[in-house]
Structure formats: C-alpha cells, structure tokens
Design a protein that fits this description.
Methionyl-trna Synthetase, domain 2; Isoleucyl-tRNA Synthetase, Domain 1; 4 domains; six-stranded antiparallel sheet; 19 helices; globular; RNA-binding
Length: about 675
Amino acid sequence: MKNFKRYTVTSALPYANGPVHIGHLAGVYIPADIYARYLRLRGNDVVFIGGSDEHGVPITIKARNEGVTPQDVVDKYHTIIKKSFEDLGISFDVYSRTSSKTHHKTASDFFRKLYDEGKFIEKTSEQYFDAEAGQFLADRYIKGTCPHCANEEAYGDQCEKCGTSLSPMDLINPKSTLSGNQPVLKETRHWYLPLDKHEPFLKKWILEDHKEWKANVYGQCKSWLDAGLQPRAVSRDLDWGVPVPVDGAEGKVLYVWFDAPIGYISNTIEWAEQNGKDWKKYWQDEDAKLVHFIGKDNIVFHCIIFPAMLKSHGNYILPENVPGNEFLNLEGDKISTSRNWAVWLHEYLVEFPGKQDVLRYVLAANMPETKDNDFTWKDFQARNNNELVAILGNFINRTAVLTQKYYDRKVPSLGELQPIDQETIAEMAQHKERIESSLENYRFREALKEAMNLARLGNKYLADTEPWKLIKTDEARVETIMNICIQLTANLSIVFEPFMPFTAQKIRQLLHIESLGWEKLGQMNLLAAGHLLDEPFLLFDKIEDEAIEAQVQKLEATRQSKIDSTPAVEAKELVSYDDFTKLDIRTGTILEAEKVAKTKKLLKLLVDTGIDKRTVVSGIAEYYNPEELKGKKVSILVNLAPRSIKGIESQGMILMAENADGSLSFVSSEKEVNNGSEIK
RNA sequence: GCCGAGGUAGCUCAGCUGGUUAGAGCGCAGGAUUCAUAAUCCUGAGGUCGGCAGUUCAAGCCUGCCUCUCGGUACCA
C-alpha cells in the first residue's frame, strides 16, 4: 500500500437551508471526524475540510417564501451549522462557505479553464421564461396542473400529490410562481460536461482500480456506468450562485452540483492562506490521499461527476476512496425535514449539555455503514447507561477511587509481573493493531467496539485480581495491579480520543497528563510511579427514563404540530351550481380489493355503487391494505370518464381527504345510508 | 419494470477467497462479588443464517426462481 505524506479529508457540504440533524452526523461528520482525528493523532499531515453549500434553487425558494434574501437564509443556517459542529467537536481545519469570495473565484476559474480548453459542449434548448420577471424559471418555480392526477398545484419537476416526476413541459396550464403569469418558451444556452466521453476512464478507474470501495458505493457506480453516462448541464438560468464567467452569459450561474464540490478546494485555499500552507500540496500532488466522506445520496456526484471534472481539469488528484454511508432512520421512520421528524444537533446540544460524546458514541456505534440503521432514544439511553457509564466510566472510576484510597492518588510502582498481568498487557497490544486496521478500512463501528473492549478488559482484570481483598494480605502485589489499571486508563485516553475527544480530555485531566500520541497506545509506562492523579470524578451520568420519554414526546408533538400548522390550500375559483351538479357522487361499498401488480400505490377495487358493481383503480395502497377494505363505505364519483390505468379500466374515482402529511382518508357518510345514495 | 445495496439470535450488527458443534454487544435467566454511578465478573438459554430448488464430498457464503426493506431509474388517475 502506498505511503501518503498528506491527507485531504472532506465531508459533504451541508446544504444551508436548514440545520444539521443526527442523520447527517452519523452518515458523514462523525466518521470523517474520527478519521481525521485518528490521522492527526498518528502525527500525519491532515487537512479536514467542511463548509456550507449555499447555492441552488431550494435556497432561493425558501428565501422567497420567507420574504428575505437568499443571503439572509444562508447566513442564518451557516451560522447555526458552523456553531453546532464546533460544539460537537467536529475538528474541521476549516469550515467555510460557497458564498465566499475565494470560492466564487476558484469555481469561476475552474469553469473558465475547462471552457477555454473546450472541455464543455454547448447546447441550446427551450425553457420557460417569465417575461414580467425577466428571467428563466427553474423547474420549481413553475406550477401547473399535473397531467396525471389533475392536481393544480404540481411543480415543474414533480407533482407532490401523486408523486410523479415531471418536466415543466408536462404541466397543463403552467404558471410562473414569480409573477403568476403564463411563462413563455424561450431559447437558452447552457454548458454540459460530456460525461459520456469520460466513461471509459471512469470505468477503469472505479470498476478495475478501486474494487476495494465499499459494496454500496461500488455497486451504485457500476449501475450508473453500465447504464451509460449522458452529458450533464453545469449551468443554470438563475441569479443566485457563481456567475458563469463567459461573455454573454448574464443571468446564468454554475449549477450548484458543479460548484459545491469545488468548495472543498476553495476552503482548502482559504485555510492554506490563513495558515501559511500550500494548498496544492493537498490537491495536486500524488503524495496526498484524498478521501470524501458522504451519504449515499451523493455517490454519483463524488464518484462520477466530480472526478470527471477533476480529470478534465488535469491538475488534480482523484479521491483514493469515497466511504459513502447509508441512511439513519429515527424511531423506525425516515428522517424528514419537511415532516419535522429529526433530532436537530443544535437542539440536542442545548437539551443535553455536556453530553457531546454520548451522541458521538451512540451515532458511531450505530453508524449506517453497510445498511440503513435506526436511532432510537431507548437505545441512546441503553448505550449511555450500560456502556459509557457501566463499562468505561465505571472502570476508570474504580481505578481512580482505589488509587485514592490506597495511595493518596499517587501512582504506585510496578512490581513483578504475574501471568495474568502479562496476558492483559499483551491483549492491549493486540487491540491497538485491530483498531488501526479497522479505522484505516473505514470500519468505525468495529473500531469503537474494540476500543470499548479495552475498558472491558480493565473491568475483568480488576475482578480477577481483586485488589480490595489482596490489600489485606499482599500490599506489594496491589501496587502492581493498580499501576496496571492506571496505565490502562492512560491508554483509554488515547484510544478514545478520535471517537470521544471531550472524554479523552477528561481522562487526561483525571490523570494529570497531556495528550499522548497514538504510538504510545499499548505501552505500560505512560505514567511514572509517584505521579499524582486528580481527585476522582465521574465521566458520565446515567440518563433517566424521564429524559428519554421527553424526547420521544417532543418528536411526536413536533410532528403533530407540523401537521396542525400547515395552512389549508387556497380556495379554487367559483363554479356555478350547475357545474357542481354535473358531478355524480354516490355512496358505495368496497366489495373486493387487491394490489395492482408492479405498482407501489395502486389498488384495484370492486365497488358496489348501488347502480352497478364496477372496477376502480385508486392510488391508496400506501395507506390501506387490501384486506381491511372489504365492506368499507366510500364516496365515489361515478360519472368520471373511464380511463385505463396499468391496463385496467378504472370506472370512477374514490373521494379521499388528504392530510398535511400526505396521508389519505376515506370520505364516508356519518350515518348508515344505502349504496347509490346521492351526495349533493 | 430495470439497476444497486440489504434481509444472520428478542434488539443492533460481525461472519475473509464455500470447510470442524454459526459469533459479538445489549436484553433475558442463574451464579460470584462488593473497590465502583445496584455498576462489575462468570455461566447459560435463544438462530431450519428471508423462502424454495440446484451445484458441491461440503453453502450463511456459489447459481436460478420467489419474497420483503432501502436507494436510484422508468412507468403510473
């Protein structure tokens, strides 16, 4: 394996339209921080890069909705995010932002070099343009009627009612959300990165040269490469972002996914300038090892697009590895910002003061390394109480208290070693190697577990040697035992440093020592005999049931309040009574229900309408099981023109009430009425 | 539908290129112990390794089909 002189560690830039939650931490920032801290502890030259991703359409939309500027939005969240990372002890060497001057220049230069060298292709296409606002419209800025479900509030990229992905051209009666006017089609020119041309290179580089990448990452890349790559637009018609540095490109900016990864470079430059370093040594030198920590949603950008950009540019090294993690769920449900189902870091830090390491520990232990994982508050409590308090905290406390009791906190001397001492010492050396191997292969859960096993080893050693009994008969022997326990404690301060830096610091305080390097791990002479320890104090506190229940309740409450506080959709325009009476709505009863094959949300229903028994296809499978539907009273629009859906003729439509969270509910009569009764 | 990743003890997960009685932590049961935040240490119970076929002397690991979860993509009132 190659010996690198420098390490460039990046973590995905959080998007600055909201705070950071535990899913981000477990997936990206905790593993990246553990890795960076480990490398530094071994004396390596490391730069650990973070920063906010502040461009893109969603931020401009959020700004519009809140009546502020995009800069206001990113200023707000950049500040929150940066502060919360600091408080959690994420050890970025630099945490900057893509709205910085340095970044604008770096990204702009990067684009310009590729442009000048003819590495892009230019294409002209027709896009919707708002004449009044004088600008092209991003997909999200266009609303219209969904061609599938007739929802009048569908966006240009997706209908949120039926979940269909759309393109703006699909919308019936499109309207600009800027002015409310009907947009016009207008030609616009954009630059594309011809990924198809890089395909042969990417195939070799990933599929042949990097078989060691994680299975989920490698597989996803293979899937993309096998499907064939297409040119990808790297510019957008938008006024928020890095302007395209080409004459005549007014009103165009770099696509956020083009500029964001360049942010890693920009931020390195910023750091280098402030610290008298040469940034190129970390990005343009084969002796540097580049590692991107990301979540699985980012795989294609970091494994395909960004490397293609770097390769096109020509001066840059490519990532050595891209350890992408899967997702973290919360209490069995997907974490969701829009549904407010999340544990926010900045709130955690306030609600659990001084417990940064508890969160770091639990998230590292539960990291979704190979598959999606679940975070539960109950597990959080159990890991704190049964592992941090009972195993790690307890061993160190036992050692500290015994040393105080027997030796007035002075380290006793090491005497002759017995077999059990030697076995324990040998065990520690083995742990060192195992932990190193785990960390270097991005197996952080395993590494943490091994670290915790060192504390277990200490507890077992105490139980086996029983110094509290021996003190009555063999004082000299007890000195040796306690010396070993204290040395072991010093070792724990080293091994936990990457995972739990605050705790490592506390252990050092307890021992009255400075930070020891990683290489000292496994040694038994870290503290000299006679060295004075600090007064014993506890490293961790138990977390009581009440605190956990409060968090679970908070989650439920915020979810409910999110639903409650969602305003009703605006009323539609007036219709005449005659218009209304055209609709023939009846009460009916579901006789049979079955899933429509090969669909996610469709059920085929046989409904007794009182008039006849007919088949209706309905998109409710995500909320109702076929079994529970038999006999269900429903309201049905019987004179809707039949339509074939998935090869089944659907005769009518079942009326559903849709809640703010998207869940559906039948609309049925309050009292028992006959099938076929009119609803009017 | 297609592609990718998963489905291993109650829970969270390990199991390398197939090879003796499938592992760990937590939880549970029993025991030991009291220096320690009733913490610790030992022992034990618990698994037809998603299902069905197949290849092989031998399969959790290989092949085929099926099924469920997650992600991507396509389609879909």
